Amino acid sequence: MRAGLTLYLAAAIACVDPLTSNVTSTPEWDLRNTERYAQAVTGQRPDTAYGWGLAIEGDMARWRQCSGPRVCGETERLQPKVDILAIEKVGTVEAGDGGTVDVLKLTLAPRRGYVVPYVNPVKANAP
After folding, report:
1. Cα torsion 8, 10, 15, 17: sign
2. Lower CB count within 10 Å: N or C terminus of the chain?
3. What is the rounded distance in angstroms from the CA atom of residue 123 to the CA atom of residue 127?
4. Sign of the CA dihedral 34, 39, 42, 46?
Protein backbone atom coordinates (compact mmCIF):
# COMPACT_ATOMS: atom_id res chain seq x y z
CA MET A 1 0.00 0.00 0.00
CA ARG A 2 2.73 2.43 0.98
CA ALA A 3 4.75 1.73 -2.21
CA GLY A 4 1.64 2.31 -4.32
CA LEU A 5 1.00 5.65 -2.64
CA THR A 6 4.64 6.70 -3.14
CA LEU A 7 4.47 5.74 -6.81
CA TYR A 8 1.22 7.67 -7.23
CA LEU A 9 2.68 10.80 -5.62
CA ALA A 10 5.83 10.59 -7.78
CA ALA A 11 3.70 10.30 -10.93
CA ALA A 12 1.48 13.19 -9.84
CA ILE A 13 4.37 15.68 -9.58
CA ALA A 14 6.21 14.49 -12.70
CA CYS A 15 5.53 15.11 -16.35
CA VAL A 16 6.57 13.46 -19.59
CA ASP A 17 8.89 15.51 -21.77
CA PRO A 18 7.14 15.51 -25.18
CA LEU A 19 10.49 15.89 -26.96
CA THR A 20 12.10 12.79 -25.42
CA SER A 21 9.28 10.74 -23.79
CA ASN A 22 11.24 10.70 -20.53
CA VAL A 23 9.53 11.27 -17.20
CA THR A 24 11.01 14.18 -15.28
CA SER A 25 9.94 16.35 -12.37
CA THR A 26 7.86 19.37 -13.28
CA PRO A 27 10.25 22.04 -11.89
CA GLU A 28 13.23 20.42 -13.65
CA TRP A 29 11.30 20.20 -16.95
CA ASP A 30 10.18 23.84 -16.69
CA LEU A 31 13.75 24.98 -16.05
CA ARG A 32 15.13 23.00 -19.03
CA ASN A 33 12.33 24.20 -21.30
CA THR A 34 12.98 27.84 -20.36
CA GLU A 35 16.71 27.42 -20.93
CA ARG A 36 16.16 25.80 -24.35
CA TYR A 37 13.77 28.57 -25.35
CA ALA A 38 16.28 31.28 -24.36
CA GLN A 39 19.04 29.51 -26.31
CA ALA A 40 16.86 29.22 -29.40
CA VAL A 41 15.78 32.87 -29.27
CA THR A 42 19.36 34.14 -28.91
CA GLY A 43 20.63 31.78 -31.62
CA GLN A 44 22.97 29.85 -29.34
CA ARG A 45 21.85 26.39 -30.46
CA PRO A 46 22.72 25.99 -34.12
CA ASP A 47 22.79 22.42 -35.30
CA THR A 48 25.89 21.40 -37.24
CA ALA A 49 26.03 18.58 -39.76
CA TYR A 50 28.81 17.28 -41.97
CA GLY A 51 28.02 15.90 -45.39
CA TRP A 52 28.91 15.56 -49.05
CA GLY A 53 27.02 15.65 -52.32
CA LEU A 54 24.74 18.54 -51.36
CA ALA A 55 21.91 18.99 -53.85
CA ILE A 56 19.04 21.44 -53.56
CA GLU A 57 15.85 20.34 -55.30
CA GLY A 58 12.91 22.70 -55.01
CA ASP A 59 12.40 23.54 -51.35
CA MET A 60 14.45 20.61 -50.02
CA ALA A 61 18.18 20.04 -49.57
CA ARG A 62 19.63 16.53 -49.80
CA TRP A 63 23.13 15.35 -48.84
CA ARG A 64 24.98 12.26 -47.70
CA GLN A 65 25.87 12.35 -44.05
CA CYS A 66 29.35 12.32 -42.50
CA SER A 67 29.98 11.64 -38.82
CA GLY A 68 32.80 14.19 -38.86
CA PRO A 69 35.11 16.05 -41.20
CA ARG A 70 37.06 12.89 -42.05
CA VAL A 71 34.52 10.03 -41.91
CA CYS A 72 31.73 9.93 -44.48
CA GLY A 73 29.04 7.40 -45.27
CA GLU A 74 26.16 6.79 -47.65
CA THR A 75 23.22 7.73 -45.39
CA GLU A 76 21.08 10.44 -47.00
CA ARG A 77 19.62 13.36 -45.09
CA LEU A 78 16.76 15.51 -46.31
CA GLN A 79 15.91 18.90 -44.82
CA PRO A 80 14.11 22.07 -45.94
CA LYS A 81 16.58 24.39 -47.65
CA VAL A 82 15.49 27.34 -45.50
CA ASP A 83 16.99 25.52 -42.49
CA ILE A 84 20.51 25.68 -43.99
CA LEU A 85 22.10 28.83 -42.61
CA ALA A 86 25.70 28.40 -43.81
CA ILE A 87 27.86 26.04 -45.88
CA GLU A 88 31.61 25.69 -45.48
CA LYS A 89 34.03 23.32 -47.22
CA VAL A 90 36.18 21.67 -44.54
CA GLY A 91 38.13 19.10 -46.55
CA THR A 92 38.05 16.15 -48.93
CA VAL A 93 37.78 12.42 -48.26
CA GLU A 94 37.55 9.25 -50.32
CA ALA A 95 33.99 8.08 -50.82
CA GLY A 96 32.74 4.51 -51.21
CA ASP A 97 33.65 3.98 -54.88
CA GLY A 98 37.21 5.32 -54.56
CA GLY A 99 36.56 8.90 -55.71
CA THR A 100 37.22 11.91 -53.56
CA VAL A 101 34.41 14.18 -52.42
CA ASP A 102 34.29 17.58 -50.75
CA VAL A 103 33.20 17.47 -47.11
CA LEU A 104 30.86 20.31 -46.19
CA LYS A 105 30.06 21.69 -42.76
CA LEU A 106 26.40 22.68 -42.78
CA THR A 107 25.12 25.05 -40.12
CA LEU A 108 21.42 24.35 -39.72
CA ALA A 109 18.68 26.32 -38.01
CA PRO A 110 18.31 25.25 -34.40
CA ARG A 111 15.93 22.42 -33.83
CA ARG A 112 13.04 23.37 -31.66
CA GLY A 113 14.06 22.07 -28.26
CA TYR A 114 11.30 23.70 -26.29
CA VAL A 115 7.54 23.48 -25.98
CA VAL A 116 5.35 26.58 -26.05
CA PRO A 117 2.88 26.23 -23.19
CA TYR A 118 -0.75 26.82 -24.04
CA VAL A 119 -2.99 28.56 -21.55
CA ASN A 120 -6.68 28.76 -22.33
CA PRO A 121 -7.44 32.49 -21.97
CA VAL A 122 -11.05 31.83 -20.99
CA LYS A 123 -10.08 29.54 -18.09
CA ALA A 124 -7.13 31.73 -17.07
CA ASN A 125 -9.38 34.78 -16.60
CA ALA A 126 -12.20 32.90 -14.87
CA PRO A 127 -12.99 34.05 -11.33
Report:
1. negative
2. C
3. 9
4. negative
